[in-house]
Amino acid sequence: MATGIREAILSGEFVPNQRLVEADLAERFGASRAAVRAALLELANEGLIERVQNRGARVRAISLQEAIEISELRMVIEGLCAAKAAERVTEDGARLLTEIADDMRAAVASGDVFGYSRLNERLHREIREISGQRTAAEVLERLRAQSVRHQFKLAMHPGRPAVSLPEHLAIIDAIRARDPEAAERAAREHLRSVIRTLPEADRSRPHGNGLAP
């Protein structure tokens, strides 16, 4: 139940400040009102929705300042994951990262913004997997969900792929070289770049959601 609502929020089907009516959700997902209430409570704890007195629940809107704060937290946690990935990467893992790097180069060269963003998200996911930091991965997934619309704006910002590509390649190179300090430094620099660009990207109003920076 919570998974279905969460996916609708992440895909942009449910937009910020949209009311979530229990009866409508119960009908859509074929669930009881009690199951809907439990799902909404779970999503409220994740920061995806908020309860409004006498008005039920609505999708929580994340401000630019909060998106920046989330990115600052990501900078620390993703730096940790990159460092741990550099310590633990196997030959198979290194080959996989190399393949992703090649695909990212090709996507940027061809102007495939959506393909590049999907690869971007895959890269971050693979780094978390290689790192073995399960708790960090859970925290990062929650933070990503909260700021997904700002991430989409950033991904669609003109020229952003050409900026983020070398940042991602630096992370990959450091992990493949098994250099934890360089990997953490590269991951942090990537997130600093995200933070610098967020205010400018936030002024644009693309539609949709679910892409990565």
Automatic annotation (TrEMBL):
Any GO molecular function: DNA binding
Residues of the HTH gntR-type domain: 1-62
A Pfam family per the record: GntR
InterPro entries documented for this protein: GntR_C, TF_FadR/GntR_C, Tscrpt_reg_HTH_GntR, WH-like_DNA-bd_sf, WH_DNA-bd_sf
Gene3D superfamilies referenced in this protein's UniProt entry, alphabetically: GntR ligand-binding domain-like, Winged helix-like DNA-binding domain superfamily/Winged helix DNA-binding domain
Domain of life: Bacteria
Spans through the membrane: none
Keyword Transcription regulation among record annotations: yes
Keywords: DNA-binding, Transcription, Transcription regulation
Protein name according to UniProt: GntR family transcriptional regulator
Source organism per UniProt: Actinomadura montaniterrae
